Amino acid sequence: MKQVLYGFGVAALLVLIGWQWQKNSSTKVENVTVTGPKPAEKVAYVTFDDGPSEITPGILDTLKKYDAKATFFLIGEEITEEREEIVKREIEEGHSVGVHTYCHKKEEMYCNKEYFWNDFEKCKTRIEEVIGKPVSLHRFPWGSNNGYVCPLVDDLMEELQKKKITSFDWNVSGEDSVAVGVPMASIYQNVKKDLDKYDNPIILLHDSNTMKNTAAVLPEILEMIKEKGYRFDTLTSREGYVFPKSWR
Question: Among 6, 36, 59, 143, which is least packed, fewest CB within 10 Å?
Answer without folding.
Answer: 36
